[in-house]
Amino acid sequence: MWAIGADVHKRSTTFYALDDDGEPVDGFNRLFRSVRSNEEGYLEVRRYLDGKEYSILMENSTKTHDVVWTMESLGMEVLVAHSPDLKKITKSDKKTDENDARDLAMYLLARLSGADQFNLSYMCSKEDMMARQLCRAAKQEMVDRGKIKRRMRSHALLYGIDIDRLDPTTASGRKRLLELDDPVLDNLVRSMEDNLSRQKALEERLASMFSGNRTFEKIDAIPFFGLITSAYLTSYIGDISRFKDSKAFVASLGLAPRERNSGEKTSHCGITKKGDPHARWLLIQATIGHVRGCASSPVTRFFNRKNGGSLSERGEAELTPVMNRQAIVAAAAKMATIIYTLVVKDRDW
Fold first, then answer.
1. Same domain, 7 and 108
2. Which residues, 6 or more positions from 228, have their beta carbon under 8 angstroms from its beta carbon?
3. In angstroms, rounded to a whole number, what is the distance separating the alpha carbons of residues 14 and 5?
4. Exposed, middle or buried: residue 1 (CB in 10 Å: 0-12, 13-18, 19+)?
5. Rounded distance, CA 233 to CA 225, Å?
6. H helices then E strands: how many in the chain?
7. One domain for residues 108 and 133
8. In this structure, are residues 60 and 88 in contact, taking their beta carbons and an 8 Å threshold?
9. pLDDT tens, residue by residue, 312-347
10. 12, 101, 134, 174: which could join 5 in a potential S-S bond, CB 3.0 to 4.6 Å?
11. Is 118 a member of any domain?
């Protein structure tokens, strides 16, 4: 089997092949030293490889998804390596496209021989990536909505206007704000209306995309998990079987603690924060809402133990912080474990 490295750039891709003995495949390497990074360019490579046993390895980058989708549509076998694992490439002081492609081929050849030098990156489908992008847009609208609220409060405080009881996300609240006849508040109300309109359109699109999706339905049924969080986690999970167990799923979200080994002692440090930051952020925010509003939940009881008491108990005792950061992260990891179980074992919340 040929081990082929592909160094991908926006306009061109360099291929480099090694045979079973680790020798360069000179004819292939001369022909495909530089091809266009599009369907037409990759089709030439695929035609040359017809009838041959091969595997292609590339490094994960912003261009990778598009390239993988294109190559897979042509029937090519492609693997994507986790970039931080490719030390020989990332720390090289002799970086050229051909050198990088050759190093990728060497990494792949070692893997085909049984060595485990790097982790593979999961490449989701086009549909799942579109859902993620829509969810990220909706998440940004949520963040922007908070900024608009803060600007309203700041302006009102500056001019001595009492708006504490007005909710600008409701029609009645915006109507009352407009009645104050303040030009700055008027402008911010319009911004809020535009924000809510975009959010509604995004949510309608996502609801349609995930209609009938069992994984989505299971996550969405968890108290205080909204449409955006449920849709994003569903698109992030994709095929749940890609995780060997719940620990692997938690680790993929960056919620697993780092381990530091010294002699016979193993210490657990802060979370790794690896993986998708959007999935982690949305899960943590949803878990915060869950523990605040669902007292009987096993996740809430777990959080209370880690937190040194419930939110109400700590509040009454005037303890600060009322919500310990480490406790909520641990609760989010617990929630991720439950989500994995619900999906894998086809259970309902």
1. yes
2. 135, 138, 139, 142, 203, 206, 282
3. 8
4. middle
5. 10
6. 15, 7
7. no
8. no
9. 999 999 998 999 999 999 999 999 999 999 999 999
10. 101
11. no
Residues 187 and 148 in one domain: yes
pLDDT tens profile 110-125: 999 999 889 899 999 9
Positions of E strands within the chain: 2-8, 12-18, 35-36, 54-59, 78-81, 257-262, 265-271
Query: By the 8 A CB rule, do 16 and 89 touch?
Result: no
Read off the pLDDT of residues 22-50 as tens digits, 9 standing for 90 and up. Answer: 999 999 999 999 999 999 999 999 999 99
Count the domains in the chain. Answer: 3
Instruction: Give 15's strand partners.
Output: 6
Whole-angstrom Cα distance, residue 133 to residue 4?
31
pTM score of the predicted model: 0.85
CA distance 27 to 22: 15
- As a whole number of angstroms, the distance between CA 247 and CA 33 comes to 42
Query: Look-up: residue for tokens 């133990």?
Result: 305
pLDDT of 259-305, one tens digit each?
555 455 444 456 667 788 999 999 999 999 999 999 999 999 999 99
119 is a domain residue: no
